[in-house]
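Retro notes, structure queue

What went well: the backlog is down to a handful. What didn't: a couple of records were mislabeled last round, so from now on we paste the full input next to the output in the thread. Example, using M36 family metallopeptidase from Hymenobacter jeongseonensis:
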Amino acid sequence: MTLNLTPSGFGKLALAIALALPALASAQQATPTAQALASFSAKARAQSRLSAADVANPVVTSSYFDRSTGLTHTYLQQRVNGLTVFNANGAVHTDQSGKVVFFNQDFLANAAAGAPSATPTLTAEQAVGAAAKSLNLPRPVALQRLVEGRAADGIVFNKGGISEENIPVRLMYVRIGDELVLVWNVGIAQLDQQHNWNARIDAKSGRLVDRNDYVVSERASFQEHVLQNRARRQPLTTTQAAALSKAAGAKGTLGAPNSLTVIPVPFENPDLSPRVVVPFSSANPLYSPYGWQVGDSKAPANFFADSYSLLSSGRQLTRGNNVAAYDDNITITSGSGNLSSTLNSPDGGPNRDFDFPFDQSKGARNPGNLAAGTTNLFYWNNMLHDVMMSKGFDEVSGNFQYKNITNLGLGNDFVRAETQDGSGRNNANFSAPPDGNSGRMQMYLFDNSDKNELTVTGTSSAAGTYAFASVAFGPRLTKRPLAGKLVLVNDGVSANGGDHACASPFVNAAAVAGNVAFIQRGGCPQLTTLSPRATNAFATKVKRAQANGASAVIVFDSVATTNLTNFGGTDTVGIRIPAIFISGADGFKLRAAILAGATLNVAALLGPDFDGAFDNGVVSHEFGHGISTRLTGGPANSSCLNNADGSQTMGEGWSDFFALWMTTRPGDDGRNSRYIATYDSGEPYNVGPGFRNKPYSTDFAKNNYTYSQIGNGTGQYQTTHAVGEVWATVLWDLNWQFIYKYGYNEDFHAATGGNNKMLKLVLDGCKLQVCNPGFLDGRDALLRADSVTNRAANAELIWNVFARRGMGFNAVQGTRVNGTPSVAGVVQGFDLPPGTRPIALSNKNGITTRGALEAYPNPAQDLLTVRTQLTSAAPMQVTVLDLLGKIVVRTASVSATQMRQNGVTLNTSQLASGVYVVRVTTSEGTLTTKVSIQH
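Corresponding output:
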């Protein structure tokens, strides 16, 4: 699409911005100099086995001048036989004099010698068909070339009935080990919006060689934790339950012209803050000079409407230069079709008053709730845009905007923020293709299982209301209600009455037909699924009940407890009837009533869904994927953070950090527990467990992650989100040390304050790090960024924080597989570089928590862990003294290595409650700290 650049007011606005920001006006889209490219080639050859041919004529994917640091970032890819080598990347970062400040490369040595012929056997059309088959998509129909070009430069096909966007195809090489394979890279954006693939198809055989996905999804993490949530969560207290019930917030009576009613930054969700009126004037004029919404007086006439006719009806919608927010619930393939509609976004009316009633108890699809959620999503995306632009995620580095006022970078890529997306549940994702293509944020509905109600009626004392848990397969109860007579199955083979559904047909198949089958969990040791695509025994039992004519299924636990378990698994076994799960305590009560002759009828009602658009931490997390993807490897390369299990994938960690950062409030303390997605999971924000394995905290008693947490051993993390937790943990530690050193600034657009300095450091680090970085690459990029921005003023602090978590000077990152660091071979290390001082890391009150000594938990009960990062030439002695100086606990000698890695655990069960002193004697001196023992 194109934008009319001559509407009234555009020239005046551009001139005003240019005068206000001379540096912005004078900045140029950088053209890499011959000197910079020559320097890259020389350094690449000097530091590796690369030949002159290996570094000759690389592809410059992007190059831009970063006015905040004075650096020019130039990103390159290796080229062999005139073809790009996928993810054989390099970068050269030069200062304003042209001097190389930093450099990296991951080119393949002697590539041309071993490269196969650059002539493909498959045509580009055949490659599209092979890619569709490999990705389990339908065969393309009426495929036509829209843009001709050299195969090395790319050919563009129409959508072929299988892609939401036109299909780009490009001939290139891909590195597999130390060899190159000739491939067609085929881009297919699936119609269900769940994947935006780059599939690399062998150009000779048609097999799938490799693929990556621009969509970064939380599916594996979020859905897993939704399913496990009840097992992990502690029962809520009366006070906590009452706090969760207040989520109704404002009732649509707070509005004012030119404003939105939202949960404001930095509050995470409706359980932490009532909705308030935020004026549109909150848009930062430096970063959103056109305002946030198309009807703003600062926006040029007809702005945005030339492409979508959004204002033709006179409606004022949640659309603007940075984001278009809209309801995408109706169909799983709606996407851009919905964007052109004026019916699926809240209408603020002629006064632009976006105030809508919100009452969680009415359900997410209530019109007021839907409008309120979409408005909140619109506001938070705009705030994220402005805050992140203030820290360096700007137009030239690839941010998301319809129109780039500087004419640097590529526009036409505002965020499409989709509320209550209809393509799934219990999930969220973000698609971040290269600069110039819209990012897409998909927010979903989440189960509210705490409010699920199973009503049982009949002439029995068992009649009443019971809790139940949903399952992740089969039709939802909103589409296929669960109601009818409850019939206990009899399979004729399982013990104690045959109600385990271990065989089919059932003995009482006639009684089950047309009714709700009641089945006990487990009891089938020889159970095999009826289909190789069935994922668990639960699904198989439901399938058997369906085969016996049941209208629905209720499974009860085989253990008479009150626990509820949500069952996972996708609907791949052809299940067409609904199913739920109830506890063993309730199940055996109903079972006894049926066996006693009672006739029971049941009806299940789902609790009102949670709308992910109100979980501002998750919204920030998703937006964060766009930031880290666009900044790492440059805005034209969205393939530098491949989120593959088994690799040191850090994107999830950055996104969690952004979520925590955006929701940090005045008065917070790094030692407190912070969780991800408590609103989506129906939990108190300060109780959790949220959707992560441990809370985020600087307190080792709450989060003791070190680098050794990732790897291939038992109990070590390998999956994408779990690995990301470890990376976010060390970033969160560093964030708080910056706050303790420089203070906290409530103005998130400012340059001062430790929180703002840390966020800028993280964004600058992303620009400087290698493509597909590992944890130690990320650490080194932060150190480089600090040297550029702060003249290395925080280098000792950064080293000490990373060493505390096992990412010190002697840590080993592990092996790289096809350019991506794997978790195999990771070795943690706690040493500091030679000449770097151990320093005391502080808490909110300035009390030393490390460098000197850590003792946790504090208060302690029966066990106390003591740990220090200091070195010692002799074994350390650890003792506990009372306040009179009497030794009450003494340990044997402890090596410095043990004290740095795991510390020593002391038995304090025999000590009386009170305050004690922990003393550690080293060759470097004696360290002490106070602890409290409470029994």
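Agreed that this is the format going forward. Reviewer comment attached to the example: The radius of gyration is 30 Å.
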